Amino acid sequence: MTDYDNIMHLANPTNTIAVLNRYGFNFQKKFGQNFLIDENIVEKIVREAGVTKDDFVLEIGPGIGTMTQILCENAREVVAVEIDTKLIPILKEDTLRYYDNVTVINEDILKLDINKIVEEKNNGKPIKVVANLPYYITTPIIMGLFENHVALDSITIMVQKEVADRMQVGPGTKDYGALSLAVQYYAKPEIVLNVPASCFMPRPNVDSAVIRLNRYQTPTYDVKNEKLLFNLIKASFLQRRKTMLNSVSNGLSNVTKEDLANALESMGLPKTVRGEALTLEQFVELSNLLAK
Ligand code: SAM
Q1: Distance (Å) from CA 73 to ligand 1 centroid
Q2: Do the annotations mark residue 115 as ligand-binding?
């Protein structure tokens, strides 16, 4: 018998409703609250995240602690960051009270200094992020982790299915865009699970998927100016039906139409090319030419 055998796991409708009723909790749409009620799915996410007793895990948005419980049982240490003040007593006094390896922080993840937590709790070594994300801020959360250079081993997250697709695809598909390029610059994405709406309470209106982003520990590209690369990418997709020449010259003040036209020509690309046709390697080459 493990110490955890007497703990009431939440990942089913009965136990979830019991906790919600005990605290008179009402779901807040503005926080993207859809709680997992399927034990299989919760266990699969933690397994796919590869969490072991060596790991420090950051969970974003623990809700009532459904996945946090399983994370605590598998990780060395867990920090769970939850914005909704009403959920804090549920987590601290009730659902997580038996675990001594978890810290609950009542904060907005977008305002938190995650690097400081990694430094204090994991000596600055790479952490694992595992989360069933609030869908309204999926992109800023992921980009925040990458752009602030948080020491990361991997990010395993539940997102809207179409957002997971967008992170994985390459040029020539309708979903390809700035998010695909940014994610693929920093990490190797892999969709590991499709999750139907019936696994959540309340049911979301969209399909969901779990995607794992394995962070590259050494840079895969030699980039002269990272900021320029990302500004170029963003500007290219601002008006995705326009040619790159038009859309970049509208969106980026420090790149002239002439310089861009010359750079495209030296890469053997037509002047009419659109951003959606370029691979990440080509964006890197283009930004390096413009950085000269
Ligand atoms: N992890 C729980 C589960 O799987 O059942 C809850 C997932 S629910 C989709 C998203 C959670 O993120 C909610 O608990 C919500 O209150 C929280 N949340 C929303 N915005 C947040 C933010 N900016 N910072 C931290 N937590 C946030």
Answers
A1: 20
A2: no
